[in-house]
């Protein structure tokens, strides 16, 4: 993504990564959310990628559509409703891989968690589902406008499921699309996944920076015998460092219940891995009890204090729904 002088966070600073855009203020994974995040000065925007039936990469948190679009109210698509087992979970609904891009474009997005983000629901029905191409074009336009670099931080969602269920190879699809759009390894790009095999394949086929995502529970969908808890032990981190550059860790793995750092950042750095933390959100619903403010789940608490704890813990990047916390 060519632009004037590169102005990403200086070495030693924490990268600010807009998780699904400025999703605390606009419905997630819309061009409006991404643009607001860029205007708030983020280093990277983070689209979750799934694929349509005609092999177009689009941004949705999941391949099931009813939580974030109006598909359930569209009579013309009632017959597309399916039950599928996605990464071991039975899911009922409408799935991106069963729609062409043209069909998907007729849908309109909506706020995924309206009880927590009621103000975002004001924008329901305004936006389409964006493609990766739409996002890259937005980034380039904003780079030209602002004179600074804006990175991409895509996550490949359910790659093993999509390969087995629909024959969609997300590695081939992503690398081909990035090449077509003129995005190279020289550009500020991180590619992330909770799965292992997809990152190992990307490591063999490209020089993009790669992020192994981990969380407190479960394990990679493509490696049923693995648990994330074992992967973040020192020996497991050494294995991750063979194919990835960054460990993308849930905040609960980086900070203990008392807010003090665990050993994870130090252990990861010892193997050559940086650590990016996910996800810093402003609402009480997502904050530890000591940092919650007055009001219910939708009220904002002291997310700034949590940000400071993560910085002190030594993380190299923070994924956030509220980039304005860093202004």
Overview of this protein structure:
- By secondary structure, this protein is of the alpha/beta class.
- It has one domain: Phosphatidylinositol (PI) phosphodiesterase (TIM Barrel).
- Helix content is 28%, strand content 17%.
- The protein has 11 helices and 13 strands.
- Strands 7-2-1-13-12-11-10-9 form an 8-stranded parallel β-sheet. A 3-stranded mixed β-sheet has the order 4-3-8.
- A hairpin with a 5-residue loop joins β3 and β4.
- α1 runs parallel beside α3.
- It starts with 14 loop residues before the first strand and ends in a 7-residue tail after the last strand.
- Which overall shape is indicated by the principal axes computed on the Cα atoms? globular
Q: Which runs of at least 5 residues are low in confidence (pLDDT < 50)?
A: 1-8
User: Could you state the CATH homologous superfamily?
Assistant: Phosphatidylinositol (PI) phosphodiesterase
Distance between the termini: 24 Å
CATH architecture: Alpha-Beta Barrel
| Topology pattern, helix = H, strand = E | EHEEEEEHHEEHHEHEHHEHHEHE
Indicate how many domains the architecture comprises: 1
Q: Report the strand count.
A: 13
Strand content: 15-25%
List the total number of helices: 11
Strand order of the largest sheet: 7-2-1-13-12-11-10-9
């Amino acid at each position: 993504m060519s632009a004037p002088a590169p102005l990403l966070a200086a070495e030693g600073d924490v990268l600010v990564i807009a998780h699904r855009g400025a999703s605390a203020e606009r419905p997630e994974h819309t061009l409006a959310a991404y643009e607001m995040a860029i205007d708030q000065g983020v280093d990277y925007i983070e689209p979750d990628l799934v694929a349509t039936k005609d092999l177009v990469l689009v941004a949705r948190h999941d391949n099931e559509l009813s939580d974030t679009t109006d598909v359930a109210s569209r009579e013309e698509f009632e017959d597309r409703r399916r039950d599928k087992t996605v990464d071991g979970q039975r899911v009922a609904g409408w799935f991106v891989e069963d729609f062409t891009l043209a069909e998907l474009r007729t849908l309109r997005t909506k706020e995924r968690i309206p009880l927590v983000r009621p103000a975002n629901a004001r924008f329901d029905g305004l936006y389409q589902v964006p493609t990766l191409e739409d996002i890259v074009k937005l980034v380039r336009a904003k780079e030209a406008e602002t004179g600074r670099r804006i990175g991409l931080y895509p996550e490949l969602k359910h790659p093993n499921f999509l390969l087995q269920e629909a024959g969609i190879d997300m590695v081939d699809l992503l690398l081909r699309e990035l090449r077509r759009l003129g995005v190279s390894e020289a550009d500020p790009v991180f590619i992330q996944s909770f799965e292992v095999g997809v990152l190992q394949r990307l490591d063999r086929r490209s020089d993009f920076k790669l992020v192994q995502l981990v969380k407190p529970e479960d394990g990679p969908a493509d490696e049923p015998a693995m648990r994330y808890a074992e992967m973040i032990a020192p020996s497991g981190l050494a294995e991750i460092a063979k194919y990835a550059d960054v460990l993308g860790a849930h905040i609960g793995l980086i900070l203990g219940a008392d807010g003090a750092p665990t050993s994870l950042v130090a252990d990861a750095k010892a193997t050559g891995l940086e650590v990016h933390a996910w996800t810093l959100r402003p609402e009480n619903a997502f904050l530890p009890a000591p940092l919650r403010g007055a009001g219910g789940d939708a009220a904002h608490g002291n997310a700034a204090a949590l940000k400071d704890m993560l910085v002190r813990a030594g993380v190299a990047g923070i994924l956030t729904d509220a980039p304005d916390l860093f202004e």
